[in-house]
Write a structure and sequence with these properties.
7 helices; two-stranded antiparallel sheet; Rossmann fold
Length: about 220
């Protein structure tokens, strides 16, 4: 199941990320992703790490959700590289161990994919900064499961809400909770006059089929 934390947090997070240009919307001059997709949105939540008040707000929102759901005997894992910073802040707030997961094992040294102390049987909550198709995020989950860990849930700052992600998380049998999602982002962008109300339909259309979207 994929869900947002709550309406208030979603609205606050969207407003904050737009304000600091961590998320940029440009439907008239779209960005090109590494996948080759044309996109009217570019998201780099790592920008939030440079703003103490905003990074604290994000980390506390994630930490409070984890504290409500789970006991102290868990490990916080960040997905490299985007979620390492926010993941450490969450682990520090909760006074819990922290690890991070690389996209693939290192080619040298101990050839680790998971960095930090982890043991089979430990319960893990994974922190991610951004969910697109879910592929790279769930790659980290698979690495943790192969190490014998029980992955309880993933929490992320933002999701585009692609249908591919919903399918991927369902197949992986993993819940995802995010602070913010695409509809709340568009609402905040209109409120901040970063886009016009007439552009919302085009931006919504992109999300349904990003691979074939025509600017």
């Amino acid at each position: 199941m994929i869900m947002i934390l709550n309406q208030k947090t979603a609205q606050q997070t969207a407003a904050a990320l737009l304000q600091i240009n961590a998320i940029k919307l440009n439907p008239k001059n779209p960005f090109t992703w590494a996948s080759g997709w044309k996109s009217p949105i570019y998201c780099d939540n790592r920008v939030a790490l440079s703003y103490p008040k905003i990074r604290t707000h994000l980390a506390l929102a994630l930490a409070e959700e984890i504290k409500k759901k789970y006991a102290d005997s868990i490990v916080i894992a960040g997905v490299a590289t985007g979620a390492i910073g926010i993941g450490i802040l969450v682990a520090q707030e909760l006074q819990l161990p922290f690890i991070y997961v690389r996209p693939e094992p290192k080619k040298h040294g101990r050839k680790n994919q998971i960095e930090g102390k982890i043991e089979a049987g430990q319960k893990v909550v994974v922190i991610e900064d951004l969910i697109s198709t879910g592929k790279s995020s769930l790659n980290a989950v698979q690495a943790l499961r192969e190490a014998g860990c029980e992955v309880l849930e993933m929490l992320a700052l933002f999701t585009y809400g692609f249908p591919q992600a919903a399918t991927a998380f369902s197949e992986a049998k993993l819940d995802l909770t995010t602070l913010c999602d695409y509809p709340h982002l568009l609402e905040a962008a209109v409120n901040q006059e970063k886009i016009s109300s007439t552009e919302v339909a085009k931006l919504s259309e992109w999300r349904q089929d990003p691979a074939n979207w025509i600017p």
